[in-house]
Amino acid sequence: TPSIGGASDNVGAVQGPIEKGDSTDDRTPTFTGGGTPGNTIIIEDNGTPIGEVIVGEDGKWEFTPEQPLPEGEHSIIVVEKDKDGNVSNPSDEFDFIIDITAPGKSAIDAITDDFGDQTGVISPNGLTDDNTPTLSGTAEAGSTLEIFANGEKIGETPVEPDGTWTFTPSPALADGEYSFTTVAVDAAGNAGLPSDPYIVTIDTTAPGKPGAGTGGI
What we know:
This protein is mainly β. The chain contains no helices and 18 strands. It starts with a strand and ends in a 15-residue tail after the last strand.
């Protein structure tokens, strides 16, 4: 019985090995495995042959589909055929998911001040003395949310099963005006559209000591 050793994603932002049950945005992933040198490996996807390849002298084979596979769930098996036409038992299944649909647009619903005498939600375009304010919002459940400040990525956080997320910057941000945006990236590496910006100004500098006034008659 031949074997499927694994599969690999060769496109997009997330590349590398595809584990069983994983999602990938690569519609032509590369499969590898083992068999008898010189025999033919027939590759089947969901019960339909999608190609074949000859096992090398080292007992290994590699196959990349010529036609892109459709989006959805896939179950790959291989069988081995010798020169006399004898066909082996099928290999164990290799199941995975092709996902080429980007997540929906994420949202920053609130930025909260957790420091000092005045706390609570900071209004858009508002001021805060908290240089580690807590951002929260919604995005596609199970995705990873990337957080940006003035276009520079400052971190990421997982999105909960109910579609909510929270994030607190670390290290603390310097004083200044910040335009925060987020992008949701799913397990296959598909990135959604950036959120609408949420602008706040961080000001942690206390006013200077007032000087003595001058006067007289």
